[in-house]
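Hi U.,

Before I forget, here's the chain from the pilot set. I'm dumping it here mostly so it's searchable later in email.
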Amino acid sequence: MKTTVFLAVLLFLGLFTFGQDLRTNTLEGVNVTPPTFIGSEAVELIKMRNYTTLNDFFTDKIRYPEESEKRLREGTEIIQFTVLPNGSLDDFQVINSISEEIDDEVLRVLKKTDGMWKPGYNNAIPVAMTKEVAIAFRIENSDHLYVAQRLFKRGMKSHIIKNKNKRALRLLNRAMVYKPYSEPLIFQRSLIHQKMGNTQDACKDWNRLKALGSSLSDAYLSKFCEAEYAVNIPADTEYIIFDIRK
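Structure:
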């Protein structure tokens, strides 16, 4: 019986915070407008389908890689990229990877949107801004939250009760593939990194929490993260959310 595969694409909209539909954001007198996907109206190609939303584009273009499907590789893929002042795309980074095949597929499709963006503006001046796309690849009947919770509980048991930090870290890394925006998960992983002496990795997690709008890591950042370990988190980051099912 052929496996039915669901492809869910999650896109978070909001500047600095989740769950908000912010087209402009005023901060300390600065009016910020994030980059906008304007679709194929910006590209004059013969016989090109008229994509008006990023949802339309991903629905039509993205495919679940066959090898990843066979190996039951699933979770939430996160790609960060920069929309330059001229509307072109640059600096693609895989923030959360499910598999190399899925990395390549999402990057392939995302790069096809180059030229389909209106740049972000800071007080009416076009500026480079970072955006982030989160795409959930899901096998039929899979519950990502349930899987992540189980892995998290096993990881914490290994860490707190058995004092097996390497095993705990492996389990939390697996949980992150499913729920990469979970603040408790990122925070607990950072503490394990710190306990194992991986200060640089701990600082990356604490900076990630800060970028997501969490205050959990503030004290740790100031105490442990020297300039050499600091992660450059762009101030103008937009998280996008949308759903696609195949």
